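We include this case.
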Amino acid sequence: MQGNYRMKLHEQILGEQLTERRQNGLIRSLNVMDKLADFCSNDYLGLAKNPSLADKIDADFKALKSNLTSINGSTGSRLISGQSIQVDQFERKCAEFHQAEASLLFSSGYDANVGLISSIAQKDQVVFCDQLLHASLIDGLRLAKAERKIFAHNDLADLEKLLREYPHETPKWILVESVYSMDGDMAPLRELVELKNKYNAEIILDEAHAGGVYGPIGNGLAVEMGIEKEIFARVITFGKAWGNAGAVVLGSQTLIDFLINFARPFIYSTAPSPHHVSSLSTTLGLLETQSDLRKKLKENIAYFIEQAKSIHWGPSKTAIQTFFVAGNKAVKKKALEMQEAGFAVKAIVYPTVPKGEERIRITLNSLTKKEAILALIKTVETDA
């Protein structure tokens, strides 16, 4: 009886927090939206829906199975029993593809960012963070022992002001994203490289929304700009343009050896399954041949920007577009109207974004038809 009382008490505490969130219009729920026109996924090249890639993944794994000791699962963490020739080969090929010395595979982009930041940002060091960093980077910083300084979004003057406050010999990190997930704008990478060289800092770059999309063969914005050697660590995730799941940290062999020894999400996670690693290897082999899909995506972005006339659109020039509707209730109402019109979109509400900057977040992909783009723009701009 006492045990049941304790359970009810603890459930009551959880329930009260859910009720408060519901009353504030912030409750989250899971919804299937696969029957609507896709304007909310991160499947930028349409590879998650590509039947030819799916067939190739199946065929490659079937050919590989006879050489595997474990077929269905990896059996443990990579430091125990989960290491394999297969994953080792993928990491080497992935590093070469991204013009890095080495890479380390993580189960997700969240794990990669948390593991990287929490382990390398140490006591008596300072991390200079862009104001609009992804939650995974923020959570990594919360676990790190380094001091944290936040600079205004993409504001080089504000960053330099903060950098000047610390002695030259103090180890410093500058933490930014290639393409920011909520606004779709890009970091001023060339100027950041100049600052890091001037103030004895190193750059950690999250390329989640740039991997597969930018670069000569889809190998990221840093490679496209020719500055990859100036970046201490890059994170490439596979759940977006790659149409898969997982992530790698790219950097020197010293960095990778360090993460193997100190990055807790890597050390204490079961290794990816053989099928998962095989699917990533297949996708990697295909990615550099997808210039047509990257070109089509860029054409869709240009067409979208050309057609979007309302003053409520953000200034993004990437696949992530934003339509601002102030207030949680108002933006949720607009999102529901668009869903009822057949468009898969999501409202981004406070506190995920600052109050007054609530928005409909729209993502484009290479499969999107111009007719659908035009129809979406007309729908979202109605009554705006």
Remarks:
- The chain has a mean pLDDT of 95.
